[in-house]
Amino acid sequence: MRRFTLVAVSLALLASCDAGTTSDKASYSARDSAGIEIVESRTPIWDDHTRWRLGEQPTLEIGAGIAGDSVREFGYISGVHSLSGGTVAVVDAWAPSVMFFDAAGGLLGRIGRRGTGPGEFPPRRESVRNSFVCGGDTVFVVVSRSIAAYVSPGAHIRTMAPRPWARTRTCAGNRLIGELWHTRTHTSPGIYRDSLLLAWYDLDGKQQAVIDSLPAEERAWSRGTAHEGMGYSLQLFGRVLSLAGRDGVFATGFGETFQVELRDAKGITRIMRVAGRERNVSAADVQRFRDYVFNPWRGNDDERRNLENRLASAIGGPRPAFAELRFDQAGNLWVREYDHTDAVAFYDYSTFSPNSARPTLTEVRRWVVLDMNGRYLGEVTMPRTFDVHEIGEDWVLGVWRDELDIQYVRKYPLIKSKRLK
Questions:
Q1: Which of 135, 256, 272, 381 can bridge 374 by disulfide, Cβ–Cβ 3.0-4.6 Å?
Q2: Is 346 helix (H, G, I), strand (E, B) or coil?
Q3: C-alpha–C-alpha distance, residues 56 and 6, integer Å
Q4: Alpha carbon distance 127, 139 (integer Å)
Q5: Dihedral sign, CA of 76, 79, 84, 86?
Q6: What is the pTM of this model?
Q7: Cis peptide before 296 (omega within 30 of 0)
């Protein structure tokens, strides 16, 4: 049995100037377990006077109709990235292209076309998986089973494939983090979690070291027709891996409870928990799922009956506490609450077809902010049609959609209250 040393953290400690001030209701503790710091929070440090908030008006907007320039009309934005000097890179999965804009929203350059040549995008529309910035101002775009690197104002640097192949979602320092899946075929129906390996890759795609073995996403295996045999789909309201990286460290979490693990090259360094944020799947959650997935239904009757049975069995089960992790430039970790658009993500046909409606929220999106020491600072709410892509010291960059479902790139000011004296 491991021995735990409990270290009481005084509630009178002040957070940093950026974080605001502690309130008399703030409550958290830290302890050490075999060299791993565990930080547990129960109430936020911010109060109504010290909390951070998003400004009401964007400081930058790039999109259709801006300055009457048709090149700013986006199809489906899969990535928005802030580069040095205020440059903004936009990855459009439907064009497909990578576009670079200056700090005022002026187009600097564009690269992208479908084909098989250097820097070109594969012909399949669903080929663009994700994108991230690594190694300075280089934008890496994951396309099918390769990764292409671009720099402003529109130059292709190289294309490489991780060896061995791994799903790559982010960067920490000057290294990529890849996920190697170990999927096996199950012979009886049920909910299963296979495993995955996280590994470091250099910027040429060569594996450097295996980081850790983690559970993979939850999958529901079921028996199809006599000719189809066993098959799987993502578990409804199931747990999936959330991942974020920066400066040689990265965070992982599955959301079954509000727990995030911080890692570096040597392993886990800190576990961060926030109590009281778990909940179960409600009948209202299931009805929201039905409203989107069954209107209209695109499968056959057997598939619908199977899905209805799975929905009925999901009620009362655990619902993930969060669905997304992001570091800001100061090193704080932002954790987005799980919502019903995450529940229907597998059925979001708009990622493949521009004529399909996207799932919508009827309320704001909430992000929980943890400081560099793992303490629960508080929440920042975002507009319901604004998806966050990057967070700076005093801004938030992402994609906003209007009432016609047209996408715009927006940068909002992040207002941080000063520490009270």
A1: 272
A2: helix
A3: 43
A4: 16
A5: positive
A6: 0.89
A7: yes
